Amino acid sequence: MEFMTENEYIRQYFAMLEAECKARVLSQPAPTDGKSYCAPKLDHWMGCWNYTEAGTRATEPCPPIPGFDYLQNATFDCRENGTWYVNPATGREYADYSACFNFENAIKEMDKDVIHIYVTIALFCLSFVMISISLVIFFKFRQLRCDRITIHKNLFISYLLTDLFYLVYLSVIHFAEDVVLHNPDWCQFLHVITQYAIVCNFAWMFCEGLYLHTVMMSAFTSGKSVIIACLIIGWGVPVPLTIIYGAVRASLKDNIIACWSSESSFLWIMYAPVVLSMAINVVFVVNIMRLLITKLRQIPEVAQTSFISIHRKAVRATAILIPLLGLQFLIFIKRPEDKDSTLSTIYQYVLAIFVPLQGAFVSIMYCFCNGEVRKLKNSYQLSTISSFRMSRLLSKRAGSFTTKTKMEST
């Protein structure tokens, strides 16, 4: 799911203030009462200073950003000649935000935010590398070509696209301030395509549950028909959802500023079906566990064990499906209301770890620890060792043959 850090909030808030200032102040005509006024101005803190009579001091509330006391006011002096006060040290117009700024709190907030962003980006990079290696393994070995691995391949591709687009989007949002403030069309499109990749990722998690449940429920269902249905669900269904979301959000000016980095209620156009799919996956898991218990009871050796032991085995077998089906994300649906609370901080950091590493977890469990992959790895190592030994043996024989030939010719 999408989450917004302090930096994203600041940029979104600044872009909103800029748009409001242009409409409310900068586009208005000058007073016609014959008095001298300082011209309206939008400063670097997005303070919107209206026409101010010469020789007076203008005041504006401090912006509610980390490190600022929004209950205080910033001031800007309009000099007698109708120009804004200029700082002698810099030679630039200067609005006084000293009453707003709390240096120690600002440094703490910025350090915390920077650590959060770099950790998230690093973990996305790790996941991207591990998913890439897994896909190479899946596509390299023909022995792994089956319906189940086909579903895995598509899921891993969706992880790869999600990691790639999210990495680019996060980098733009946090390290390209000019881009965020100017809000170009390509940056808005980057947000939309990132959301499409995320929804595809969850759609393929649903397809994993659908395929496994279908196989266990009906042995006569055609694997090809299930694959076709999953391709439509995984890559096709997110398309209209993304188009509707993009069209609705683009129609409202307040929702398209700052490269759409702010949280929006319109995201539920795409995320409501995602939550529904996870709920259905929960039903699949429960039914799969019920089927496993039934089949375990039919095995004579297992049937003699205790009721608790049978259920423990079934739970253990289905527990590994939780990361594959993305069920752990159900606990992240609702963000804590108080953004300054300890619970909210914990939520942000847990989310920053689990979201990027989801692909890495799945690649470890369903590729690197896959029994078929490990057998192929062992056989590949044996064949490599055998080839190496054979080449050494042939080289030795060739060497001894050459030595013998030289001796005979001598």
From TrEMBL:
The keyword Transmembrane helix applies. One of its GO terms (cellular component) is plasma membrane. Residues 20-104, 116-370 form the G-protein coupled receptors family 2 profile domain. Its main location: membrane. GO terms for biological process: adenylate cyclase-modulating G protein-coupled receptor signaling pathway; cell surface receptor signaling pathway. It comes from the Eukaryota. Belongs to the G-protein coupled receptor 2 family. This is Calcitonin receptor. It comes from Magallana gigas.
